[in-house]
């Protein structure tokens, strides 16, 4: 018997590249998750058009229509519960979440962040990595905790920083990896292979390691 797909709720505010990666992954035969609902707090978010084009249900919950964060989040949770969502994926969702929402969805709420956490939490990650002369930056999928950009790490990708990178060129290179690791993290969770133990993620049958990367490469 095949397990029922994990139902995803994807929260967005903008262009929706990561949403598109999840849409595409879920469309592949045998992928163990499906998108039940896309929620945007911005009515004009381009990601909503991506969802509609894929036939995915959408809801707009405009934070400006609510008197505070809690009632806004209660409306989001009501939408997610009504569609039977089992995992909430933040994908460029530009609202800070209260501890109440984070605890409501504890270990069922993940985020993608464009740095190798715990380095470069917050905004302007690429400009800060370049300014520091970092040789690598990258991206992280993690379970969400009340502190911003904190929580058990599910998957990371390390991405080299080029000497002449601008924040835009580095962002584009890292985005390519984001679009790979977000579906990977969702698949691992949906397959039941991800456990949070003492605030660290253990992945069942996930012990093989990639080759180390060196930048500049030896012999450069
Ligand atoms: C991505 O860089 C993601 O890491 C960050 O916000 C951006 C969203 O981009 N959290 P998109 O909406 O997926 O194109």
Structurally, the number of domains stands at 2
Low-pLDDT runs of 5+ residues are: none
**For the report, how would you describe the main beta sheet?**
7 strands, mixed
Strand content: 15-25%
Instruction: Give the overall shape.
Output: globular
Assigned CATH class of the largest domain: Alpha Beta
User: Strand order, biggest sheet?
Assistant: 3-2-1-4-5-6-7
Structural class, by secondary structure, is: alpha/beta
3D architecture notes:
Strand 2, helix 2 (46-53) and strand 3 form a beta-alpha-beta unit. This protein is α/β, with parallel strands linked by helices. The protein contains 6 helices and 9 strands; from the N terminus they run βαβαβαβαβαββαββ. The chain has 2 domains: 1-105, Formyl transferase, N-terminal domain (Rossmann fold); 111-204, Rossmann fold. The longest helix has 24 residues, at 167-190. The model has no long low-confidence stretch (mean pLDDT 97). Strands 3-2-1-4-5-6-7 form a 7-stranded mixed sheet, sandwiched between helices. A two-stranded antiparallel sheet has the order 8-9. It binds 5-O-phosphono-beta-D-ribofuranosylamine. Residues 14-18, 47, 91-92, 112-114, 175, 178 line the site of 5-O-phosphono-beta-D-ribofuranosylamine.
